[in-house]
Design a protein that fits this description.
Shape of chain A: globular
Largest sheet of chain A: 7 strands, mixed
Order of helices and strands of chain B: HHEEEEHEHEEHEHEEHEHEEEHEEHEEE
Structural class of chain B: alpha/beta
Number of domains of chain A: 3
Low-confidence stretches of chain A: 1-13
Radius of gyration of chain B: 27 Å
Number of helices of chain A: 20
Number of strands of chain B: 19
Low-confidence stretches of chain B: none
Shape of chain B: globular
Strand order of the largest sheet of chain B: 4-3-6-1-2-5
Oligomer: heterodimer
CATH superfamily of the largest domain in chain B: Nucleotide-binding domain of ferredoxin-NADP reductase (FNR) module
CATH architecture of the largest domain in chain A: Alpha-Beta Complex
Strand content of chain B: 25-35%
Number of helices of chain B: 10
Largest sheet of chain B: 6 strands, antiparallel
Helix content of chain A: 40-55%
Mean pLDDT of chain B: 93
CATH topology of the largest domain in chain B: Rossmann fold
CATH superfamily of the largest domain in chain A: Protoporphyrinogen oxidase, mitochondrial, domain 2
CATH class of the largest domain in chain B: Alpha Beta
CATH class of the largest domain in chain A: Alpha Beta
Chain lengths: ~525, ~400
């Protein structure tokens, strides 16, 4: 208490600035940007603080030579190019960013190739098209797959209901139990358990599970609700890509925010979250400026919040236990290639390639703990979304891999460059082997990002790009339910990839919006 | 769904399983320790990331070596932490306060990556006409002085996945430094490529690091150094400018990549010479330099309103100098590094006004162009401006 009094005295009399806002947002990643844009739109005086010189966090792009590379986005769901169900577009419209972004709809889900030579399937987006194509690869599968899609749609209805809860009331539990029994039945099962209960063949399961690497969890453990909601948003609703790369979305959100009166300060760090009587009341910036706010939205990881931004005495026990219980998600690795031939000339016929050593995703996950044995990649040829993404006669290909575990921590500074080039080379070799397309001689520009790169730019612990693992104990259903029941700290709202919806573009935007709405609700309650 | 509702293990078991998760989750959280978790900075990956890309490096000048042609090499040790590792070909950006100006300037690292692991960097600065910062460095920096540098940056580095394994490096004047670093790295086994170095100077007495280059060329079969003198005919040297003929004469058999680092005049000459070689674009890489100046008949004076964290400052600017130049003169600090539009660190919002951006220097993202973000290091005012830097 004395320390608090002293620090107030110090900051208010030392000549350091004191600023007052309704809300302060730490970090201009996807969660922070949407939270800021929503708060400003709702008339809340908001300050957005970002360490870097540009917004977006992972959602950015970079230029090398005559190519502009997308840093992380493969496909964006939640824009609903097929069904028009567009929860994300709704958010972007409401905060004033939608008309600043140009979307390109995709028609292909993925081409799934395994290096063991057993699988090479190209799947389309759209429920009917997907079921029909699966029937071609696995004759007789259509009736069961149709039933699976019915369940996927039923689950989606429940999730819509839960998502629209802004102020939780116990009566809602009753509604869940009476109206959403399908959801409740499967809520604690894995993908494999549910698909097996349908009596699906191995082949059908392999193809349905193709997206597993986007969540980073093997399907014997991955919660079925989590995976099915993802299948819904991609396959049923459709996926898009922004023409100006994800940087266009990030900048559009920032523009919308500032147009609505928000203040954004870049090249600025938050040093401390101020906690008074167990509630967050503002932040202190790197230059000593004190920002008082009714709400602190934290788009920084809970690791950073707990270990860098808060004094140990201020951290609630629950937050400590949570962070310690959870497992850090996949660490990212990516190779960005600017090729000096067109996609047609090279034979790059697909937009999204999933290349796995085998369709046994548990095995892929375990092999993916080591640099030597990891052979997983999700690769995008951006020209298959829109061919003018690169100059005529060229193409852009970017390959992403994920690592479970933390083996990159063992790579020394001295070995760093060689290790990253060697792994990039293996990814290129695997791609050539799987697709039969030669790319090695056509590389005009190359950039390689490693867990260290993600750590550098986003301060992600261990270079994770997936927040926390969606383990059995920490799947999104459990996260959402417990988030409704109990909150971490009054005044402090987390947004982004470490929160209830797991990581990813759409979840991060969504949790940013949820955090802002929760903060606005609390402010309104306080005002009454 | 159809009337017969789906169940996984029967309705009862499914319900029990669902209720179970409340218990599982509670135990999962409660069984973990209520202690502060591992600090982000303590993860191995984050440590290496910070070591490779420190926010700032506080260096001390440990040694100064005088060269021919009014050039000096500065050697730096780090205060405390080891210096950041790098790839041969990268540069260091220094932050200097000169009078009321705050400037950043980049210099290619001449020392080898291995020497960074031993805690040392070397850069070489040459006196040039009208060199505001190079004059200051050459006249003021002394052994024991503390200087501020940022982490190594830059993309003119050898990558075996992209480049041919034979590199033909074309250097002019002090543009030799990134290739000296590369030659040293090859000799120390840290880079695995063959280097043919075509080093252009006016006369032999202007050649920097001649003894060491001769030694590397003689001892290491992967390194071959050829001196090309433009203003002096001397025995044992090529005469003229480095152009297509000299490249063809010395380039090894098979595929090769050309790397270029030197003064503006050399680039101009190579612009007409390199096409004669009919190489694919991927085999030609330039280290881009920019003077930050535009020659025109009559420079016009403008004002720039600089917005920083909501505060506004009005400064003077000239149409013949970049917006970044105006910032530097006024002591307004932006995190500039490369000064050529490439790194994007100085990216700022042009709130109002008009700037001229030379063609080919516009390395901005699509989204930045859409929303009027500029790279002040290669934008020239053409009206009064309002620029938001933070």
């Amino acid at each position: 208490m004395l320390a608090t009094v002293m620090s107030e005295y110090f900051y208010e009399r030392s000549g350091n600035m004191v600023k007052n806002y309704d809300a302060v947002v730490i970090g201009a990643g996807n969660g922070g940007l949407v939270a800021s844009a929503r708060l400003a739109k709702e008339g809340k005086k908001t300050l957005l603080i970002e360490r870097h010189n540009l917004p977006g966090g992972f959602a950015t792009s970079f230029v090398r030579g005559r190519f502009e590379f997308e840093a992380s986005l493969h496909e964006l769901c939640g824009i609903g190019s097929i069904t028009g169900k567009s929860p994300l577009l709704k958010i972007f419209k409401e905060v004033g960013a939608a008309d600043k972004i140009e979307w390109v709809a995709l028609d292909e889900a993925f081409r799934l190739i395994t290096l063991d030579g057993k699988c090479d399937c190209a799947m389309p987006l759209g429920k009917e098209a997907f079921i029909a194509k699966l029937e071609e690869y696995d004759p007789g599968s259509a009736p069961i797959v149709s039933k699976i899609f019915e369940l996927i749609e039923s689950i989606e209805k429940t999730l819509d209901f839960v998502s629209n809860i802004e102020d939780f009331k116990p009566a809602m539990i009753k509604e869940i139990f009476s109206e959403h029994t399908e959801f409740l039945k499967v809520a604690n099962y894995s993908v494999d358990e549910v698909l097996k209960a349908f009596g699906t063949s191995q082949k059908t399961r392999d193809i349905l599970n193709g997206y597993w690497c986007y969540l980073g969890q093997p399907t014997d453990e991955l919660n079925v609700i989590h995976y099915f909601t993802m299948l819904h948003s991609y396959i049923i609703d459709g996926a898009v890509i922004p023409r100006g790369r994800s940087h266009q979305i990030s900048t559009a959100l920032l523009e919308a925010f500032t147009e609505n009166g928000g203040d954004a300060w870049f090249n600025t760090s938050v040093k401390k979250i101020i906690v008074k009587d167990g509630a967050a009341t503002g932040v202190i910036l790197d230059d000593g400026t004190q920002v008082n706010a009714k709400a602190v939205i934290c788009n920084a990881s809970p690791y950073n919040a707990l270990t860098k931004l808060m004094d140990e005495k201020d951290v609630p026990e629950k937050l400590k236990r949570e962070v310690n219980a959870k497992v850090l998600g996949a660490k990212g690795f990516a190779v960005f290639l600017g090729l000096n031939r067109s996609a047609d000339e090279l034979g790059l016929n697909n937009h999204t390639y999933f290349i796995y050593p085998t369709n046994d995703n548990r095995k892929c996950y375990e092999l993916g703990k080591k640099i030597d044995t990891n052979d997983v990649q999700a690769t995008v040829c951006l020209n298959r979304a829109f061919d003018d993404c690169s100059p005529e006669g060229t193409s852009i290909l970017y390959m992403t891999s994920i690592f479970a575990g933390d083996e990159w921590s063992k790579v020394s500074v001295k070995d760093y460059h060689k290790t990253k080039v060697a792994f990039a080379e293996k990814m290129i070799d695997n791609f050539e082997k799987a697709t039969g397309v030669a790319i090695r001689d056509y590389i005009e520009e190359i950039e390689i990002s490693t867990p260290m790169t993600y750590a550098r730019y986003t301060d992600a612990p261990a270079g994770t790009i997936y927040g926390y693992e969606a383990t059995k104990e920490d799947g999104i259903v459990k996260r959402i339910v417990f988030d409704l029941i109990e909150k971490g700290m009054p005044g402090l709202y987390f947004a982004g990839g470490y929160t209830t919806r797991h990581m990813g573009y759409s979840p991060s935007y969504t949790t940013g919006d949820m955090a802002a709405k929760a903060a606005i609700l609390a402010m309104e309650k306080e005002a009454k | 769904m159809s009337k017969k509702k789906f169940s996984v293990n029967g309705n009862l078991k499914d319900s029990v399983n669902t209720v179970k998760f409340l218990i599982e989750r509670t135990q999962f959280i409660n069984n973990s320790a209520a202690v502060i978790p591992t600090r982000t900075d303590d993860f191995g990956v984050n440590k290496v990331a910070r070591s490779l890309h420190p926010k700032v490096q506080n260096l001390v000048i440990s040694r100064i070596e005088e060269h021919a042609d009014l050039a000096k090499s500065y050697y730096f040790k780090s205060e405390g932490a080891p210096v950041a590792y790098f790839k041969a070909g990268q540069y260091l950006t220094f932050r200097l306060e000169i009078g009321s100006s705050v400037v950043t300037r980049s210099y290619s690292i001449a020392s080898s990556p291995a020497s960074a692991l031993n805690g040392e960097y070397q850069i070489t600065v040459k006196r040039i006409a009208d060199g505001f910062v190079s004059d200051y460095i050459l006249d003021n920096w002394s052994v024991g002085d503390k200087v501020t540098a940022y982490a190594p940056e830059g993309n003119m580095t050898y990558c075996p996945l992209r480049d041919a394994e034979n590199i033909v490096a074309i250097a002019g004047g002090s543009g030799i430094t990134p290739f000296l670093s590369l030659a040293r790295a090859i000799n120390q086994g840290d880079e695995d490529c063959n280097l043919t170095l075509l080093y252009g100077c006016r006369s032999s007495d202007e050649i920097l690091f001649k003894a060491e280059l001769d030694d590397l060329s003689a001892k290491n079969e992967k390194i071959n150094v050829v001196y090309v003198l433009s203003h002096s005919e001397e025995e044992g040297y090529e005469k003229g400018f480095v152009g297509a003929d000299i490249i063809k004469k010395y380039a090894p058999e098979g595929k090769y990549s050309i790397f270029v680092c030197g003064p503006g005049g050399m680039y101009k000459f190579l612009e007409t010479e390199l096409p004669k070689l009919e190489l694919e674009r991927k085999y030609i890489r330039f280290e881009v330099f920019s003077s930050g100046k535009k020659t025109q008949e009559e420079p016009k004076e403008y004002s720039i309103t600089v917005v920083n964290r909501g505060d506004e400052t009005v400064i003077k600017a000239s149409s013949s100098e970049t917006v970044l130049c105006a910032f530097e003169r006024a002591g307004i600090e932006v995190p500039a590094r490369c000064h050529t539009g490439e790194c994007g660190f100085c990216r700022s919002k042009l709130v109002s006004g008009k700037v001229y951006i030379p063609e080919g220097e516009d390395k901005r993202r699509i989204g930045d162009m859409q929303f009027n973000f500029i790279h002040p290091c290669c934008s020239y005012p053409e009206s009064d401006l309002v620029v938001r830097i933070n």
